[in-house]
Design brief:
- Chain B: Pfam families: BPD_transp_1 (PF00528).
- Chain B: One of its GO terms (cellular component) is plasma membrane.
- Chain B: It is found in: Cell membrane.
- The complex is a heterodimer of chains A (436) and B (276).
- Chain A is of the alpha/beta class.
- Chain A has two domains: 194 residues, Periplasmic binding protein-like II (D-Maltodextrin-Binding Protein, domain 2); 224 residues, D-Maltodextrin-Binding Protein, domain 2.
- Chain A is built from 18 helices and ten strands.
- In chain A, strands 1, 2, 3, 6, 7, 8, 9 and 10 form an eight-stranded mixed sheet that branches. Chain A has a two-stranded antiparallel sheet with strand order 4-5.
- In chain A, β4 and β5 form a beta hairpin.
- In chain A, α9 packs across α10, α10 packs across α17 and α17 runs antiparallel to α18.
- Chain B is mainly α and 276 residues long.
- Chain B has a domain of 167 residues: MetI-like fold.
- Chain B has 14 helices and no strands.
- Classes of the chains: A alpha/beta (436), B mainly alpha (276).
Chain lengths: 436, 276
């Protein structure tokens, strides 16, 4: 009897060990957006090709995710094997040695197909530290029917002055249409994303070569004057509460003549299930001013592996699957070409099926191609990033400055006061952080 | 002295109470209503009250995407577990403070409460490191410990208030009859303090159920409760209000039902000793 029990125990242990060997569980932290949710639904494709790997998804709201993965990676908590991180985090974390280089993505991965701007944003010393899942820039979406009715024709890239004139013509609040919708909600990833690109267009920069903030410059004054004027006078009421989603719902309800925001919005505003104006939307590049350099932002959600992870090989397999050309075809076969994650691979923009399904493809490609995180300002700068500076201090600086600019938009302080407050606050932070 | 209220005052007070009640209930009502709308209808301006195409697609998608019952089970275990552990400590602590006070009892009580005023993010990294080193990350046990500790000051305060209302003579009589300390607490004190203990437990269950900082930061999947379930439906890019409302409705449903059935106990306990 003892022998039988011993044999059974051995068999059980052996089975357990075999099972443990057979399955590597990857815990993946991700944000909640359409493309990521679609990826979760297609998990079976990956697990059927890799039966020894199982996937556990942890979906979180963007700010919670950022706090959660930052805590985990900084303390080497080891809770996640794959993390969804933005182009802001990648250079900082790669510099700190927190991310594992992605050097085993496979021979058929075709890393050269990744858009150069995005690739440079997620690389350090030519090594990839995260693989882009989807990328975006910013552009203008406008109502073709309202433009036609007002006799407005777009000839070449608009300037902010021209955009202001168009906003004046389209602004008819009595009829429920506002000239322009822009981000007004305070935050480094909210209003500051737009205002920084406006600043770039007016020739401003966040910091000079010696890391001194430059909010006291004439260029910033011109940019913020334009922002408060155009949005304050020709935008929707309560614009200081509007972020991406609020403007998306305003635009989809037919209440915005123009909207300058992320290129990913294009698929939402042209989707008849979500938009009342799906067939009336035109696309063009974001406006310029003194220059077009840095006038549109660059962002990508990427998949990275925390350094010290015990499952790097399996994690790289998953990342290679999720960010490959084959994955795009898989999504297209299941959900249609219009639902393919955009903005990462050049081959997608040469695919006639995608170009046919996505009328905004050309403008998206143009916007992403023209955004360069290294050379995004007219004057030289010491930081990487178009709409942000990839330094740890920027999140705090961006949020505080964003609050001051939002207060200027609300009329609680003047543009000069907001810029002075931004200058002194940023100067204090940079001094404390030891930049000078 | 009898306090007689005029009919007009009674009616005015009733109307006022109803208005306040409806105002408080309105966000919950709106959340439930939104959960039956499409994403486009959820954000349409002006919003529609009843005249929209009612749909269950949000609930279907939430069910398809997430394992609701796993999250709900974790919420129940964390809320009930932390309450029961907390009760053991809070009863003994409140007994000592109510029946054997020292010069510093009031100060100790205030100090305990003051720990609630500290922003939790201030101790996130140290606690995260402790959890990492002790292997408590993403475990129910670890989270029960945290929830019990953060709610302990409230439990002690509430029980202390109830225990103060109980005459010391009764406990002394029990002692004279030979009751040991555990027997005195279990067979004499606790039966007299049932309403207070019940309301303390209910309040603690609600607080633990709604806790959304530690439960989000110390869990990933195995111990993640309904707060993590709701957080997964908020989106930075794309319309999400209808799905988020459906997820939130599912998340608050159990606690809403418990609250509804136990409201008398809760109100009685919370107002215990307030009017003499």
């Amino acid at each position: 009897m003892k022998r039988v029990m011993g044999a059974a125990l051995c068999a059980l242990l052996a089975g357990g060990i075999a099972h443990a060997n057979a399955e590597t569980k990857l815990t993946i932290a991700t944000v909640n957006n359409g493309d990521m949710i679609r990826m979760q639904k297609l998990t079976d494709d990956f697990t059927s090709k890799n039966p020894d790997i199982s996937l556990e998804w942890v979906t979180l709201e963007e700010n919670t995710l950022r706090q959660r993965v930052t805590t985990d990676i900084a303390t080497k908590g080891g809770q996640y094997d794959v993390m969804t991180i933005g182009t802001y985090e990648v250079p900082i974390w790669a510099e700190k040695g927190w991310l594992a280089p992605l050097d085993k993505l496979g021979s058929d991965y075709d890393v050269d197909d990744i858009m150069p701007a995005i690739r440079s944003a997620v690389s350090k010393d030519d090594a990839l530290y995260a693989a882009p899942f989807y990328g975006e820039s910013s552009m203008m979406m406008y109502r073709k029917d309202l433009f036609d009715a007002a006799g407005i024709k777009i000839d070449g890239r608009l300037t902010w002055d021209q955009t202001l004139e168009i906003a004046k013509k389209l602004h008819k609040p009595d009829e429920g249409v506002y000239g322009i919708c822009l981000r007004g909600k305070a935050g480094w990833g909210e209003n500051m994303a737009l205002i920084t690109t406006m600043g770039n267009a007016y020739g401003a920069r966040l910091f000079d070569e010696k890391w001194n903030p430059t909010f006291d410059s004439a260029e910033w004054k011109a940019a913020l004057d334009m922002y408060t004027n155009i949005l304050g006078n020709y935008g929707p009421p309560g614009a200081t509460s509007n972020g991406f989603n609020e403007n998306l719902s305003l635009f989809n309800s037919g209440k915005c003549g123009m909207w300058i925001d992320a290129t990913v919005a294009a698929s939402f505003v042209t989707n008849p299930k979500e938009s009342k104006v799906a067939d009336k939307v035109g696309f063009t590049e974001a406006p310029c001013a003194a220059t077009c350099t840095g006038a549109n932002w660059l962002w990508a959600w990427n998949l990275g592996i925390p350094m010290g992870s015990q499952k790097v090989e399996a994690a790289q397999k998953f990342i290679a699957w999720a960010t490959s050309k084959n994955y795009l075809e898989l999504v297209a076969s299941k959900e249609g070409w219009a639902n393919v994650p955009p903005g990462t691979r050049m081959s997608l923009y040469q695919n006639p099926k995608y170009l046919e399904a996505a009328p905004f493809a050309d403008e998206t490609l143009l916007a992403i191609d023209s955004a360069d995180p290294i050379n995004s300002t007219m004057q030289p700068k010491p930081y990487v990033g178009v709409q942000f500076a990839a330094i740890p201090e920027f999140q705090g600086i961006g949020t505080t400055v964003g609050q001051q600019f939002s207060a200027a938009l609300a009329g609680q302080m003047t543009v000069d006061q907001a810029l002075a407050a931004a200058q002194s606050g940023t100067d204090r932070t940079m001094r404390k952080a030891g930049y000078y | 002295m009898e306090n007689k209220q005029s009919p007009l005052g009674y009616i005015s007070f009733s109307i006022f109470a109803w208005i306040v009640g409806l105002l408080i209930f309105f966000p919950i009502f709106w959340m439930v209503l939104t959960s039956f709308k499409t994403e486009l209808e959820a954000v349409s301006i002006p919003p529609s009250f009843i005249s929209f195409d009612w749909t269950l697609e949000n609930y279907a998608e939430v069910q398809e995407r997430s394992n609701y019952f796993k999250f709900a089970m974790n919420s129940i275990i964390l809320a009930v577990g932390s309450t029961l552990v907390g009760l053991v400590f809070a009863v003994t602590c409140a007994w000592a403070m109510a029946f054997n006070p020292t010069k510093r009892t009031k100060d100790a009580l205030l100090w305990m409460l003051s720990t609630k005023m500290m922003p939790p993010v201030g101790v996130l990294v140290p606690i995260y490191l402790v959890f990492r080193d002790w292997g408590l990350l993403d475990t129910r046990f670890g989270l029960i410990m945290v929830l019990f500790l953060i709610n302990l000051p409230i439990m002690v305060w509430m029980l202390y208030t109830y225990f103060k209302e109980i005459p010391t003579d009764i406990l002394e009589a029990a002692r004279m009859d030979g009751a040991t300390l555990p027997k005195e607490i279990i067979f004499v004190l606790l039966p007299m303090a049932v309403p207070g203990i019940a309301s303390t437990m209910l309040l603690n269950v609600i607080l633990a159920w709604n806790e959304a900082f530690w439960t989000l930061n110390l869990t990933t999947s195995d111990a993640a409760p309904l707060t993590a379930f709701i957080a997964s439906y908020s989106s930075p890019e794309g319309l999400f209000w209808a799905k988020l409302s459906a997820a939130s409705t599912l998340a608050v449903a159990p606690i809403l039902v418990i609250g509804w059935f136990s409201q008398k106990q809760l109100v009685r306990g919370l107002t215990f000793g307030a009017v003499k």
